[in-house]
Design goal:
The protein is α+β, with helices and mostly antiparallel strands and 81 residues long. The protein has three helices and three strands. The longest helix is centred in the first third of the chain and has 18 residues.
């Protein structure tokens, strides 16, 4: 038989579950504190933070745990599980 081997539905679900476990172990949860309003936001990843706040992911990484306010307003912290 040539070409790709098709995996069964059970095997695919098992692979997806294993990948999810690996991702959770490596994940960096992000908290953003708005100093002007005192509002705190929580996100599941750097990418999600960038997407929701309409920032660049590199910017989030740069200010993550630096203590320097981004735009003079937002402080970005990491949170490990």
């Amino acid at each position: 038989m040539r070409g790709r081997r098709k995996l069964g539905q059970e095997r695919l679900e098992q692979i997806r579950a294993n990948i999810a476990l690996i991702n959770i172990k490596r994940a960096i949860f992000v908290q953003v504190l708005d100093q002007e309003t005192g509002t705190e936001f929580e996100f599941e990843s750097i990418r999600e933070t960038a997407r929701q706040m309409e920032w660049n992911a590199r910017t989030v990484k740069k200010y993550l745990d630096s203590g320097i306010p981004f735009k003079g307003r937002y402080i970005i912290f990491s949170k490990k599980l």
